[in-house]
């Protein structure tokens, strides 16, 4: 396992066996992912596939460009793929005033066409439409505040320009109709949480995670008797996740926030509520509780990931996990590490 990045600004991890390599999530630009793979000694040309846990920006931002460039298939659940396509498909935008005006004109046209009185349900339909419009507007406003990557700064714009160069190389041989489609991928494969599948000699068991995305999941990977797992982006530890995380040799586990730092920190109240909810992220305490009560103690390495930059620090996460594991830490087992947002980790090989 090589964690290239972990945190709310981008996630990506390489899992490899003797003869198969997969990338889990592509939450940094293609260029940055390639740079980090070079630093970590991972050869992008050796990747066989990309697997996606869920469609949040910090897991998919470099996906299309990277998959096109490497010409490798992308594995999604069908709802996650659909959500991703929806995110990238340009919507026709209309201001509220324009939309009301449009509605009025339609209504006038219909009234002209018939001498009958305007039926009551038509007014209802307009009211329902307005409510829906407001709901959609508030959802997208919320999404914008939830995800720091949505609020593009000038630095992000620069990354996107670089990304275009990356994309040009990736799509040079493609017809222009395909180039214009931001959702084009060389190949898409669907899997379902709860149904194991294989890529090369890696057996993969996806499991459902409680998180506010279309169909989020984590993975257990098994090859040559070694088992590795990725369990980040989950609001709590449900029984199915506890059951999936048995006999794991290398475990990338979320330890997102310190409860006090989150409470006193800079996030707006609505975002704090979302992080704390049962479809948000695991706190240091929640992770420690899992490690103390449910974890079987059999891992060689536990990597704490998706550590919040605003509401946590690696030392706090590490302390909570180490206290929970207590006397079970040895030279060969239960070593606890933290994954970083800014730099790739040393590859962990068993
Ligand atoms: Zn995430
Ligand atoms: Zn997420």
From TrEMBL:
<dbReference type="InterPro" id="IPR001279">
    <property type="entry name" value="Metallo-B-lactamas"/>
</dbReference>
<feature type="domain" description="Metallo-beta-lactamase">
    <location>
        <begin position="9"/>
        <end position="257"/>
    </location>
</feature>
<dbReference type="Pfam" id="PF12706">
    <property type="entry name" value="Lactamase_B_2"/>
</dbReference>
<dbReference type="Pfam" id="PF00753">
    <property type="entry name" value="Lactamase_B"/>
</dbReference>
<protein>
    <submittedName>
        <fullName>Beta-lactamase superfamily domain-containing protein</fullName>
    </submittedName>
</protein>
<dbReference type="InterPro" id="IPR052533">
    <property type="entry name" value="WalJ/YycJ-like"/>
</dbReference>
<dbReference type="InterPro" id="IPR036866">
    <property type="entry name" value="RibonucZ/Hydroxyglut_hydro"/>
</dbReference>
